[in-house]
Amino acid sequence: MYDAHVDRVYRLAFRLAGDDDLARDFTQETFIRAFERIGTFRGESRLSTWLHAIATTVSLNGLRKVKRFRTRETALEAADGVAGGVRSAEPDLKTRLRHAIDALPDKYRTVVVMHDMEGYTHEEIAAALDMEVGTSKAQLSRARAKLRESLADFAGEWVS
Amino acid sequence: MNDDRFEQQIHDAVREYHRPPETPRDEMWAAIEAERRRRRNAPRVVVLRPFWRWGIGMAAVLVLGIAIGRRLQFGTGGPPASSVSAPSRPGDGLAYQLAAAQHLTRAEIVLTNFRADARAGARPDSQFLNQARDLLGSTRLLLDSPAGRDPRLKPLLEDLEVILAQIAVLSASRDTADVEIINQGIDQRSVLTRLQTAFPAGSAPARAQGAI
Lengths: 160, 212
Prior knowledge:
The complex is a heterodimer. Chain A is an all-alpha fold. Chain A has helices at 2-17, 20-37, 47-79, 93-103, 106-117, 122-129, 133-150, 152-159. Chains A and B meet through α1, α2, α4, α5 and α7 of A and α1 and α2 of B.
């Protein structure tokens, strides 16, 4: 199980966390839980679906804890005017897009990461996140709309 | 650059977001094995959720009360406990009264939260529903104990049992009409007011609770 799935689990954890240490922690915890609970796997879904459900839960819960620790730090930086998000200071589309994705609500960001970056199907996402397929599609659509909105000044510049 | 080109640029840039390095398979496997070994060797600690702690405490007080009651009755040569009405001596019923006081306080908290959640349109989570089911069980235990023969407590416990039974069968996706009916029941029977005044501050059970 580890050999067959570790790459995909680690990639997902890294995409969500953006940090190697966190991605390793989340991947390790995912497999530890999977080994502990393998007896409860009833075979109603594919093993990979079950495993990715554990991986997303572990990663998102872990990120929430990390965010709580970092909130104070970020607030202090913002107060100092460090996190400005000024257009002229960040002219690169990729940088702007990274910030825009970071700013998405967790549920939207997770769907974008899973679908657009890691190639999960909506069925796989729905199973992993315990939602309807239609909800996954709707969240991806809303996430893309938010990204387009965030980068509208780039589009306007190019169109003109 | 047109919209399609812009979309393509976004699509390409998205793939660069947090691009993962090569998977450190061996290092992670070693860490997983070490952590599993550590957890296997670590002593197991059972952590009870708050509502379980309350439930177990209530059950323990009830069992203790029943045991004391039976012992006193057999000791005085009286009839078996099952055929005895409410305790005749003030000391005999103290354990039941104490259990009832704790139970009613907890019920008051749960019902107050239920009404507050209903007003806010929030759904009850599984922990809340478990709490209600746990309370329902304790209410039945109290009704079957000498506390349930107290003419002042019995009608209140019976009304509480009905309300809790209605709450306990609510699912997480509850119907607002059901919630409204439960709230009407609470109002019409003045359940919350009666819970608040069942054991006035300074009464024996209230003092005993304070001592505990």
